[in-house]
Design goal:
- By secondary structure, this protein is mainly alpha-helical.
- It has two domains: 13-135 and 145-185, no CATH class; 203-403, hpI Integrase, Chain A (Orthogonal Bundle), CATH 1.10.443.
- 50% of the residues lie in helices and 7% in strands.
- The strands form three sheets. A three-stranded antiparallel sheet has the order 5-6-7. A two-stranded parallel ribbon has the order 1-4.
- α4 crosses α6 (151-170), α8 runs antiparallel to α9 and α9 (224-235) crosses α11.
- The termini are far apart.
- 31% of the residues are buried.
């Protein structure tokens, strides 16, 4: 028996805050066609997500929306049982479902939930609750039957359900939190005792990336923006979201500032709605000056420079994370081609796997290897605790173990 066709439940945060059900005909019909608790649960979910949107970042809203929406769709179409009646066993049933969802619920790409047509928001038939994506560098066609959630995905699922039930309990809609106790009994959750792998580029691979970006900019000045983005992410240890324009923050040139001792800093709006100042090395200023010269600006920014940190080539304003990711990916692809041609595909392989976040890891790892104080690197990274930096980046014990095991023999 085939699974019923899912449909999205919640739009973007701005659309949810001004939502009128009359504008969403298919969603409105679906919610009113079911038992009374279906519409009630949707209102609970909307209330929770508005709360997340007010108190957290837009990225957190999107993450919690994915999990809350998926859980409610399953409750409506598969379990057909009110979530305030759930016990631990019901949450474990949901975990089973997420471990191997119906192939008809899996998408091979990222699609919008709703399409705006003729003044109304219609369900996008290409949207599905689960998404299978290939690891970068894989050439084969993705197979939906291969879908399995990662440990990180499972952890995110339980985190979101736990937060959802806590909110419902605070509002006195529910009187128990089955998600909190179910996590410990989920057979798919594995305790991690693995050697931690830092997803970063080697020094050689980074040199190819930087040289490629410079060569592209020298040949065609439209690549000056790509060179600036690459240099900024790696040197200042930034997340791609910290360079992008968001609902509550637009990175601007005025966020570069100089203290009384002549040191340069960049003010960053990071995770958890926290602002931090990242130290700016002198060697980086050449890339800032080069990009500003391309934009027809003075070599260094002033406190009155409100222009976007990374501007669109066409139109006003800054860029989204998705747009910035494409810019970086183009450079990675070209650097891979150049490095593979010169040194072979094996040495260039990681450039096919790399994401924008690898640049943050690469920059921080190189700084620690250079001998910079862990506390200073941790504060530039924006970690809440120095132990986080130590856990992620300091691999001295692992290196010693690897070295001691290299000379083992088979006979």
């Amino acid at each position: 028996m085939s699974a019923p066709k899912p449909l999205p439940l919640f739009p973007t945060l701005s659309e949810l805050n001004s939502l009128s059900m009359d504008d969403y005909p298919e969603l409105n019909t679906f919610l009113n066609a079911g038992p009374a608790w279906r519409k009630q649960h949707w209102l609970w979910g909307a209330d929770f997500l508005r709360y997340v949107g007010r108190s957290k970042s837009e990225h957190t809203y999107n993450r919690f929306r994915n999990e809350t929406e998926r859980f409610l769709i399953w409750a409506f179409l598969i379990k057909d049982k009110p979530i305030d009646d759930y016990r631990k066993a019901d949450i474990l049933d949901y975990a089973d479902f997420c471990w191997q969802p119906p192939q008809s619920w899996i998408s091979l790409g990222m699609n919008d939930r709703f399409e705006y047509r003729s003044g109304l928001y219609h369900v996008n038939p290409d949207w599905f609750p689960f998404r299978l994506k290939l690891n970068k560098g894989e050439d084969r066609e993705p197979e939906k039957k291969r879908y399995r959630p990662s440990q990180e995905t499972l952890a995110a699922m339980f985190t979101a359900l736990n937060a959802f039930y806590k909110h419902l309990m605070n509002e006195e809609f529910c009187f128990a939190n089955p998600a909190q106790i179910a996590r410990g009994d989920c057979k798919y959750m594995v305790k991690n005792a693995q050697v931690k792998e830092i997803r970063r580029l080697t020094n050689e691979q980074w040199n190819f990336v930087l040289k490629t970006a410079q060569d592209l900019a020298d040949k065609d000045r439209k690549y000056e923006r790509a060179l600036f983005v690459i240099a900024t992410l790696k040197t200042l240890f930034l997340r791609i979201s910290e360079l992008s324009e968001r609902r509550d923050w637009v990175p601007a040139m005025q966020h570069f500032w100089q203290d009384y001792d002549g040191n340069w800093w960049l003010k960053i709006y990071g995770k958890g709605r926290k602002i931090r100042d990242v130290s700016v090395p002198l060697d980086y200023l050449q890339y800032l000056k080069r990009y500003r010269e391309y934009r027809g600006q003075a070599p260094l920014p002033s406190v009155n420079d409100y222009s976007p940190l990374v501007e669109k080539l066409r139109g006003a304003g800054g860029m989204t994370s998705r747009q910035l990711t494409r810019i970086v990916q183009d450079v990675f692809d070209e650097a891979h081609r150049v490095m593979a041609a010169k040194l072979g595909a094996e040495k260039a392989q990681k450039l096919r796997e790399a994401s924008t976040h690898w640049l943050r890891h690469t920059g921080a790892s190189m700084e620690i290897e250079r001998g910079r104080a862990l506390k200073d690197v941790s504060e530039d990274l924006g970690h809440a605790s120095m132990s986080t930096t130590d856990t992620i980046y300091v691999q001295s014990e692992t290196r010693r173990r690897a070295e001691s095991g290299k000379d083992r023999t088979v006979d």
